[in-house]
Design brief:
By secondary structure, the protein is mainly α. It is built from 1 helix and no strands. The longest helix has 23 residues. The protein is elongated and about 55 Å long. The termini are far apart.
């Protein structure tokens, strides 16, 4: 019984690694917008939200 569980675990890990590598090497589609300019929603938990980016402080010298 444990042999089947280990076999399933190995298969699932192999599928995960395989799909991860395939996704990593997939080229970016044409017309994909730059997410750094995203201001379309108010989701502050999103890492692209402007609240997470520090603006440059200009010296008044």
């Amino acid at each position: 019984m444990t042999i089947w569980a280990i076999l399933w675990l190995v298969i699932l890990i192999a599928i995960f690694i395989g799909t991860y590598l395939l996704n990593k090497h997939t080229p970016k589609p044409e017309g994909c917008e730059d997410m750094s300019e995203c201001v379309g929603c108010n989701n502050i938990a999103c890492s692209h939200h402007s609240a997470h980016h520090k603006e440059e402080v200009k010296n008044a010298d």
